[in-house]
Amino acid sequence: MDFEPSPQHHPFLYWHPQNTHQYLANYREYSFQSPLQVHETLPSSPVKANGSPSTVSIPEPVIRNGSKKRRACNECKQQKLKCDLSTLADQHPRNTCSRCKRLGLECRIDRSFRRERKRKRSDELEKEVDSLKKELSRQSTSAHATDDVTPSIHATASSDTSSMNPIRLLTGKSGMFSTGLPTRTSSVTTPNLGSLEVITRPFPESPRIVRDSDVPGYFARASRFLDDFHLSADDIDELFALYFMYYHPFLPVLDPTTSPGQYYHASPLLFWAIISVASRRYDNDPNLLSKLARSVTNLTWRTLQYVPHSKHVVQSLMLFCTWPFPTSSNTTDVSYMWMGTMMQIAVQLGLHRPLNPDNFTKCRVRFTELEIADRLRTWAGCNIVAQSVSVGSGLAAPVQYDWSLVSGSCSDSLAMILDRDLDLHLRTEMFRDNVSRAIASCVSDPVGLVPTHERLSLYKVFSKELEEIESIGSEVSDINRFYISAARLHLQSFALFDEPSSDSYINRILSLYYMAASLIQQTLDADRASSSMIRCCPFFVYQTFVSASFIVLKVLKNNYFSSFIDIQSGRTLFHASITAIRRMSLECNDLPARLGDVLGYLWSDATPNLVSRPGKGGLQLQIRSRMSMSVVYDSLWRWREQVREQLSTDHLGIEHEHENLGVYRGPARSPLYPGFGAV
């Protein structure tokens, strides 16, 4: 029966050498002996003439049952893997284990080796980074004191300020995006700022955000790099000014007072997202968007690979879904996919519970009122973008309108109150979600639509609800007025699914036509007033505008309903809508450019009954699964079928002609739309 040794005789835990210096000197030589064995051997160890201990033959260590103790190399110990070095050494002399030989690693056995914990190493690296940042802050502060007594620095700063163009008066070194740091020309600060600011490759997102007050010198104006692309500091300031001037009012979720350097330090992905949106209409470099498209898209995919994510990744996806990169086909658009990812990350981060961040972290977290308001604003923006992208695609929306958005404003916290414009936009998107769920959620119908007689009562209820939302704000901006009109168009578009024999069918179709015409005219008027409604509009604004144009086209092409309306004014408005859609285009052959051409082709084509069939029931749709956007997909489907028939006829005629000539030149192509199937 085994017994536990007393503390003073325990060979591993309680042994202390009597001659510490001699033990440490011979520690490496007796690397495979237990401490007790070394203690017993030291007094009788032979000594050379020069006083150093002689080399002795060390037998393999023996464990309690008499067998030899296995040895493991450093690499196998670090990974906690089985090492066969001892087994191979018994068979034939060998200095490398199988794993190290296979992986090309250095196979060593060090007595002093200890496994390194990865978490401990991460903590050490984080402490090292913090110390470097503090040192940088200290040097930056001392550099400020040096600059105050250097006249040449002041001359340089004043000359830079005087050379700015008008838009840089808003974004220059003393503007809204400035950090108050002049351009460094001294030899003290240039190496430090250059080594930290010039980053040649993106790095994964970090949930830890460094405050502006922590590192004041880090947020100085600087050029940025993304892969092989370079953007100067002046261009960055100008692009940020363009974004917050023309794009931010459509989705006011970001902070305009935050500098570009702060955005870059918080999240490179969010920084490049803002740059990408602003570059859509950048006159100084019209090709900037196409240069950024591939690199920023790759940066987004790389960032999504690393978890956990931060709130800034959610905000980046919001911008990408609202203003996606140009594409020529709906099948290659990733907006709906990124929108779902955005909602999942937001919920995982606990943005839907802005007052309870402790429920989604491992440590105690306390946010300020400003941070809570920012989280609430981000969560509201997520639901707005998710609903808008879903309605524009004709698909279900993975939204979550919970307490924080519906009843949070009634709480005692002032941070739970949204901005008026953002709150009105949120209410209209909640209305569109209620309409979709109530009308297109019937499990007994193949396409999910409730029966026509049930929809008639729902139309009245939702119309009254929308009037209440519209009456909330006495002064509504043009953008929010468009959102309300889009919500009304979404509701009335379901009249195209009604039975022609139902009550008031004619009135509902005419109301739909006039609503679509009103939305088009309202958008044109708003663009004439601000010149940014069409050029800088989000993608879901374009989708709603296209839907209204197809509704006007479909009603004008019907011989029954066209007798109730003014065809001449309708034609003029329709052609104006085609011009506006083409102005929304960012590059050749993208979706707005192609849809503008398709609308023009459908209007001028002489084929009877191409868009609408004759009679009162000629507006019935064959594509009925895309909710309010079904009218767009139905018209495109009819257009594709007509083009296919034309291509088939032309192909047969050309093939017959070539057979007579003894030549075959392959299938014919449409001279107008060679890739029509991709729209």
Q: Give the spatial strand order of the biggest sheet.
A: 1-2
Helicity range of the residues? 40-55%
Distance between the termini: 83 Å
Number of separate strands: 2
Strand content: under 5%
Annotation field: number of helices: 25
Radius of gyration: 35 Å
Q: What would the average pLDDT be, to the nearest integer?
A: 78
Biggest beta-sheet profile: 2 strands, antiparallel
Order of helices and strands: HHHHHHHHHEEHHHHHHHHHHHHHHHH
State the low-pLDDT regions, or none: 1-63, 143-218, 662-677
Helix/sheet category: mainly alpha
What is the overall shape?
A: elongated
GO molecular function, one term: zinc ion binding
Pfam families: Fungal_trans, Zn_clus
InterPro entries: prtT (IPR051089), XnlR_reg_dom (IPR007219), Zn2-C6_fun-type_DNA-bd_sf (IPR036864), Zn2Cys6_DnaBD (IPR001138)
Organism: Clohesyomyces aquaticus
Question: What would a concise description of this structure say?
Answer:
The protein has 679 residues and is an all-alpha fold.
